[in-house]
């Protein structure tokens, strides 16, 4: 069953259409607040480490993978889209998307990851 994961930033546009939308803004620390991480992205190891070591993130990855499996096992199972967003779409959301993709691929799913806002400029706030 194909799974598409779309990371995005709420500050850029509306969330993409999805079966599951995960909002990472309020419950997980934003690397943007750290000057040394602000201009990095999820392509940089320090950002990935900061996000993945945040309490609760690993559990949310697992819970989301379980939800995808539930969609996949339904009687009308088909493609599933997961959208996950943070403020700017450069740190938390793409890191979460990559971790979820790794977890789903390990479970045998065919996964495509799209990062809608990863390459956009930092939102100054």
Description:
By secondary structure, this protein is of the alpha/beta class. It has one domain. Helix content is 35%, strand content 20%. The protein is built from 4 helices and 4 strands, in the order E-E-H-H-H-E-H-E. Strands 2-3-1-4 form a 4-stranded parallel sheet, covered by helices on one side. The longest helix has 17 residues, at 57-73. It is globular and about 50 Å long. The N and C termini lie far apart (40 Å). The relative contact order is 0.34.
Features:
alpha/beta, 4 helices, 125 residues
Brief digest:
With 125 residues, the protein is an alpha/beta fold.
Outline the fold blueprint.
Layout: E1 2-9, E2 20-23, H1 35-38, H2 45-52, H3 57-73, E3 80-86, H4 92-106, E4 110-115
Low-confidence stretches: none
Helical fraction: 25-40%
Please report the number of helical segments: 4
- From the N-terminal CA to the C-terminal CA, the straight-line distance is 40 Å
Spatial sequence of strands, sheet with the most strands: 2-3-1-4
Order of helices and strands: EEHHHEHE
Total domains = 1
Task: Describe the largest sheet.
Answer: 4 strands, parallel
Radius of gyration: 14 Å
Shape, per Cα inertia axes: globular
Query: Beta-strand level of the residues, as a percent range?
Result: 15-25%
Overall pLDDT confidence? 95
How many strand units? 4
The assigned structural class equals alpha/beta
